[in-house]
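Deliverable D4.2, example record:
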Amino acid sequence: MKIGIDFDNTTACYEGIFHQLALEKELIPETLPTNKDAVRDYLRIAGQEDIWTEMQGFVYGPGISRARLFPGLTSFILACREKEFDIVIVSHKTRHPFKGPAYDLHTSAREWLRQNGCFKSISDGGMGFKEEDVFFELTKEQKCERITEQKCDYFVDDLPELLTDSCFPKSVRKLLFSPYLNEDFSLPKEIEKSFSSWQSIKEWLLV
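Output generated by the structure prediction step:
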């Protein structure tokens, strides 16, 4: 079996980072909710769309060091390794931000994976990924093509719009990683199941 997983907001958790950064720059009030959407909406209403875009470039570039692995992901990966399942990371990520300094976002993401033990062997306390198991694609269509080329049986992503897009391979079973979705979210019929944590994915898929 081969399982594909997304990177941003699926592997790497940015919870609270945008709020923290905006506070440091005195762009938002402390009372603003800590989620990313609240920060984005506040800055857009304030006419600071460009600042928001540059902030994203920083967070996904050098600021990615503030991100952490989602809880339960390491346990899920190791359980997959025990069953000898193949795992790949496939992400849609531009090479450089749309505005601001031209950080190399692919290099920043790979370095973050390295710093978080993803490329270490399991015997050394890592997750056992090889460099060639990680793909950063420039467009949504290229991401879908890569998932097809890798012959994934399952794919885990946080974006329902990606999993239901016409370019997404129909043969792949679609799992939605949804720790932040509202309870009243209606799951599209194309998506097999939604999960609020990696532990719940592990229990459903592997136990």
